[in-house]
Amino acid sequence: MTSTIEPQGAATATPRGTLRRPADLARNIDVSGLVDTEGGLLDRVVFTDQELYRQELRRVYAPSWLFLAHTDQFHKPGDFFTTYMGEDPVIVTLDRDRRIRAYLNSCRHRGARVCRADSGTTRNFTCTYHGWSYNLDGSVASVPNKDGYPESFESGQWGLVEVPHVESYRGLIFGTWNPEPIPLRESLGDMAWYMDAMLDHDDQGTVVVGGVHKWVLEGNWKLAAEQFATDWYHVNMSHASALMILSPAGKKPKDEVVHRTGRQYSDAHGNGAGFPVHPKNRFDAQTVHAWMDYDALRERLGDARVEGPLTNGHATVFPNFSYLPVNGSIRVWHPKGPDRMEVWAWTLVDKSMPEEVREAQRLYNLRTFGPSGVFEQDDGENWSEAQSPSHGFITNGVALNYQMGLGTEREDGRHPGRTSELYSDAAGRAFYGRWRELMNTPAWHEENHS
User: DSSP letter at 255?
Assistant: First the structure.
């Protein structure tokens, strides 16, 4: 048996000639015994095995909706931003019809990237290797020495491979290689209610300030994604020094800050969000807090969101997009092998914010969850420390415990979907349950051919 991968929705027709890749090159491992969501156990080989990682790229990343960019990064035709879907480099751009599109950032001739800038504006994308050039709609613009090709060569068959589905939700742009996906909004389900607490403060929406920060961490991408989905538990221990710094001089953090109560949302799609619940929840940056009209937010979003996920909290949209409402931080955990990830982070603010309020939020984000932020450094150290011992033979065989809050998930009548206590592993169990499901499900590209 052999298999092929034919990206759908591309700007190209299938060229003449056929390649058939042996199916043995994509052996799939049954991961049923590696994740026990009912018992709350996880085999740590999911963080270290290279074959499992390659299978993730095929079965978790290729069919999923993946975060690409924010609509505020595109204002005129030719604006572009380069990013990744899994380890596949892609270009996101606004075409001449003002439609946001995404293409595989790889020349159809020898495979080099056709765009090596992080962002900017262009009329076309040109490979610096042999000069093949592509229009904003992905079609071939020019081929040097075209007369040297046979008569059967048709440039219309060799355009950039297009991401077949690109959709946005409240300014966040997602794409998927799946030719027949569940629509983005349906995929988000109840998670959209929690996202709106950050993204829907008024009719003007959100904008990006301060560009994109990027840094590399030693650790598996799932460690970061799961923490943002499920883990308030680490805050008091891991961030004790940061909490002291942010407290008034000479004082310990208030007891109600240390011992928070709240809820944690999880769903079958692997999405998760945790948040303290308190009538006086507020934004941390004083300038932002003073500017916010909490009464208007209550009118628009309701008491439950204002007292919960509007401010302090954490969330992950499966598989690798996360955000922190209190400082406007959104980020994507790009996988770079089983032992490394690249973090890309943006600061979002309400478009209606005056300049001085935007700047206050940007600076607060940098000080807390920027690359050198007092909280961010703690998290990166934890993920690296959790990863490094896992390569030991005995260590790798010792199960990890995800049992906190086991059996407490319920419909609480105030927050959509199933929620658990704030201190819980419920969203972590759901995250790995979704990972297990996708890892054991043939994806769109795995049709067999005789």
Answer: H
Look at residue 78 and give its three-state secondary structure: coil
Q: Please give the structure tokens belonging to residue 352.
A: 């209606």
- pLDDT for position 9: 45
Residue 145 is which amino acid? Answer: N
Domain boundaries along the sequence of the chain: 66-167, 191-439
Q: What angle do CA 237, 319, 92 make, to 5 degrees?
A: 120
Does position 255 have pLDDT exceeding 70, yes or no? no
Cβ-proximal residues to 40 (8 Å cutoff; 6+ apart), any chain: 401, 402, 403, 404, 406, 425, 429
CA atoms of 298 and 383, how far apart (whole Å): 37
Summarised one tens digit per residue, pLDDT across range 266-321 is 999 999 999 999 999 999 999 999 999 999 999 999 999 999 999 999 999 999 99
Helix or strand holding residue 188 (H, E): helix 184-188
Alpha-carbon gap, residue 370 to 357, rounded angstroms: 18
Looking at 1.25.40.10, 3.40.250.10, 3.40.190.10, 2.102.10.10, the CATH number of the domain 66-167 comes to 2.102.10.10
Provide CB contacts within 8 A for 72, sequence distance 6+: 171, 206, 207, 208
Asked if 20 and 26 count as a contact pair (C-beta separation under 8 A), the reply is no
* Fold (CATH) for 191-439: Naphthalene 1,2-dioxygenase Alpha Subunit; Chain A, domain 1 (3.90.380)
Helices (H) and strands (E) in the chain, counts: 14, 25
Are the beta carbons of 273 and 435 closer than 8 angstroms?
no
Q: Is the pLDDT of residue 258 over 60?
A: no
pLDDT in tens, 326-378: 999 999 999 999 999 999 999 999 999 999 999 999 999 998 888 888 887 77
- The dihedrals phi and psi of 167, each to the nearest 5 degrees, come to -135, 160
**Does residue 445 contact residue 62 with C-beta atoms inside 8 Å?**
yes
Residue 109 has a CB neighbour count (10 Å cut-off) of 16
Structure tokens at 162: 């297009």
pLDDT tens, residue by residue, 153-176? 999 999 999 999 999 999 999 999
pTM of the model: 0.93
185 CB neighbour count, 10 Å cutoff: 10
Question: Does 30 or 3 have the greater pLDDT score?
Answer: 30
